[in-house]
Amino acid sequence: MRQDRPDDLDQGALGMPRKITLPAWAAQQFNPAPTEYTLRAWARSGRIVPAPLKIGRTYWVEPTAKHIAEVMAGNRLVSRLRLLKP
Fold first, then answer.
1. pTM for the full predicted model
2. Under 8 Å between Cβ of 26 and 38
3. Mean pLDDT, 10 residues at a time, over the chain (86 residues)?
4. 81 with 44: CB under 8 angstroms?
């Protein structure tokens, strides 16, 4: 049985950062965090960049994702386009 090292927890099998659940992301970004109902509405309306991935009933989001209001605060076109790149 293989023991996970701490660096394995931050990276997926392909070396890409793992996604976290929407409530976990909100807890990191906001104090107090918005309700899950609000978070789901933001995800459906495209207010989180990059867009969360919905699998079953759960939304998964990049840990570095931003709410669109934070993105618009850096109002320069160049900074907005960099965030939308895959």
1. 0.65
2. no
3. 46 69 93 93 91 94 87 61 61
4. no
For residue 50, give the nearest of 75, 14, 16, 82 by alpha carbon: 82
For residue 68, the model assigns a pLDDT of 83
Residues 6+ apart with CB under 8 A from 83: 49, 50, 66, 71
How far does CA 57 lie from the centroid of its chain? 16
Q: In one letter, which amino acid is 35?
A: T
For residue 16, CA distances in Å to 10, 38, 39, 56, 64 come to 9, 28, 24, 22, 13
Q: Say how many C-beta atoms besides its own lie within 10 A of residue 59's C-beta.
A: 23
- Non-local CB neighbours of 46 within 8 Å, separated by 6+ positions: 68
Please say whether the beta carbons of 62 and 17 come within 8 A.
yes
Render the burial of 17-42: b for 16+ CB within 10 Å, e for the rest: eebbebbebbeebeeebbeeeebbeb
